[in-house]
Design goal:
The complex is a heterodimer of chains A (about 120) and B (about 120). Chain A is mainly β and about 120 residues long. Chain A is built from no helices and eleven strands. In chain A, strands 2, 4, 5, 6, 9, 10 and 11 form a seven-stranded mixed β-sheet that branches. A four-stranded antiparallel β-sheet of chain A has the order 1-3-8-7, with no helix packed on it. Classes of the chains: A mainly beta (about 120), B mainly beta (about 120).
C-alpha cells in the first residue's frame, strides 16, 4: 500500500512568514509523529498524535509551532513567524498506535528553508 | 534520561569489506525498544530492525546482523560483504516506556562503500 506522504517536498519562505506542512499517514495507522532533522543530525521529536489528540507535544520548541489532526488522519504542522533557525527537514511518521513496540514508518520529509 | 550515541560520524570502506556500526544507549527504563533505520541519499528513513529489551538474541537478515548486549548497553549493526548500495546514513534509535512513543535518535553514521 501507499506509504506516508508529505507535501510540499520543498518550501522556501521568508523570515516572519507563516507556513503549513502536511502529512498523510499510512491508511489504518492511528498514531502520527512529527520530527525535525537539521543538517548532519538525527531526527528530533516534535509531537505525537494518537487519533485526533496530541498525546505528547513536549518536543515543540516554542509556541510558534502548532500541529493539528482534526479527523485522526491527515496532520498539519503550522509554524508562525518563521525564523532562519527553523530551516530543516520536517519528517512525519505513522504507526499502528500499539505502544512503544510500534515501528514508525517515515515519509520523505519537507525541506523548509527560511531566508 | 534517554540518550543514543553513535560515536562513528563517518566510515568509508571498500566494497566487499565487512563493517560494524556502533550504537550505545542510555535509559533508566527496564522496558525499551531499539531500532535501526537507513537514510539513503533520497532522504527517506527506511526501517531495518526492532529489538526489545527482553530479547538479547542476535539477529541475522541476509548480509545484515545485529548484536544486542545489555551488559554494555550496545546494539551494534554489522554489514557483511558490503556493497555500494549500502552507502547511506544509518541511525540507531530508542523508545522507552517513560518516553511515551517518541523515538530518540543518535546522530547517525555516514557509511560510504567505495567500488
Amino acid at each position: 500500500g501507499a506509504g506516508v506522504s508529505q507535501t510540499p517536498s520543498n518550501k522556501v519562505t521568508e523570515k516572519g512568514k507563516y507556513v503549513e506542512l502536511r502529512c498523510d499517514p499510512i491508511s489504518g495507522h492511528t498514531a502520527l509523529y512529527w520530527y525535525r532533522q537539521s543538517l548532519g543530525q538525527g531526527p528530533e521529536f516534535l509531537i505525537y498524535f494518537q487519533g485526533t489528540g496530541a498525546a505528547d507535544d513536549s518536543g515543540l520548541p516554542n509556541d510558534r509551532f502548532f500541529a493539528v489532526r482534526p479527523e485522526g488522519s491527515v496532520s498539519t504542522l503550522k509554524i508562525q513567524r518563521t525564523e532562519r533557525g527553523d530551516s530543516a527537514v520536517y519528517l512525519c511518521a505513522s504507526s499502528f498506535g500499539r505502544g512503544i513496540a510500534d515501528t514508525q514508518y517515515f515519509g520523505p520529509g519537507t525541506r523548509l528553508t527560511v531566508l | 534520561a534517554q540518550k543514543v550515541t553513535q560515536a562513528q560520524t563517518e566510515i568509508s570502506v571498500v566494497e566487499k569489506e565487512d563493517v560494524t556500526l556502533d550504537c550505545v544507549y542510555e535509559t533508566r527504563d527496564t522496558t525499551y525498544y531499539l531500532f535501526w533505520y537507513k537514510q539513503p541519499p533520497s532522504g527517506e528513513l527506511v526501517f531495518l530492525i526492532r529489538r526489545n529489551s527482553f530479547d538479547e538474541q542476535n539477529e541475522i537478515s541476509g548480509r545484515y546482523s545485529w548484536n544486542f548486549q545489555k551488559s554494555t548497553s550496545s546494539f551494534n549493526f554489522t554489514i557483511t560483504a558490503s556493497q555500494v548500495v549500502d552507502s547511506a546514513v544509518y541511525f540507531c534509535a530508542l523508545s522507552e516506556k517513560r518516553g511515551a512513543q517518541k523515538l530518540v535518535f543518535g546522530q547517525g553514521t555516514r557509511l560510504t562503500i567505495n567500488p
